[in-house]
Amino acid sequence: MIIMNEKIVSKSVEDTLEIGKIIAKNAFCGEVVTLSGDLGAGKTTLTKGVGKGLGIEEEINSPTFNILKCYFHDPLPLYHIDAYRLEGVRPEQKNIGLEEIIEGNGVTLIEWPMYIEEFIPFDSLSIEIHNDENENRTLLLSSNSPKYFTTIKELKEKFGC
Ligand SMILES: Nc1ncnc2c1ncn2[C@@H]1O[C@H](COP(=O)(O)OP(=O)(O)OP(=O)(O)O)[C@@H](O)[C@H]1O
Ligand SMILES: [Mg+2]
After folding, report:
1. Which of 8, 77, 78, 90 is deepest in the core (most CB within 10 A)?
2. Which atom of ligand 1 is nearest to the CA of 12?
């Protein structure tokens, strides 16, 4: 199995939005992107970029109080999951249909994936965002699925360091 790992840098909110747009440009039905990183790292900002890139006009906000928000749009709907509030919740109580969404017909972005690890496909695209100084963010991209290699390569070309 080939694993592709790349490190890219965002220097501003605009960069992070652009990174999201590149992900959207290459998006496909069934895509799953996990976004980990500290509070305020830019996970929701990146998701906003994906939404814009998919042509979704509705404002994308943090779904922290909802766990899941669906943005129905053709050809690809966006599903935005924020699992922050599922920390410490017992597995049987987490059975709220997230698995069906993740395996569904859209693009799913997942903030705080560690709290729903059991639902994350092994071949998703993982993005770990680190807060550096000021507005700088380092993003570690990783996937073992060739389905994401075009996206990773394009991001590396535009935002690689
Ligand atoms: N390069 C950058 N990329 C993204 N956001 C940045 C950047 N530089 C500064 N910011 C600021 O960091 C914050 C990121 O907020 P955002 O809601 O996207 O983070 P988050 O990772 O979703 O947080 P949470 O864990 O609370 O959900 C915003 O206030 C944004 O203006
Ligand atoms: Mg967020």
Report:
1. 78
2. 1
Q: What is the pTM of this model?
A: 0.97
pLDDT band at 68 (very low <50, low <70, confident <90, very high): very high
- Which CB contacts under 8 angstroms, 24+ apart, belong to 98-106? 98/67, 98/68, 101/68, 101/70, 102/32, 103/30, 104/30, 104/79, 105/29, 105/30, 105/77, 106/29, 106/30, 106/31, 106/70, 106/76, 106/77, 106/78, 106/79
Relative to the alpha carbon of 49, which ligand is closest? 1
Complete domains list, the chain, with CATH:
4-86+94-159 (3.40.50.300)
Residue among 45, 136, 161 to mutate when testing ligand 1 (max atoms within 8 A of CB): 45
> How far, in Å, is the centroid of ligand 1 from the Cα of 126?
17
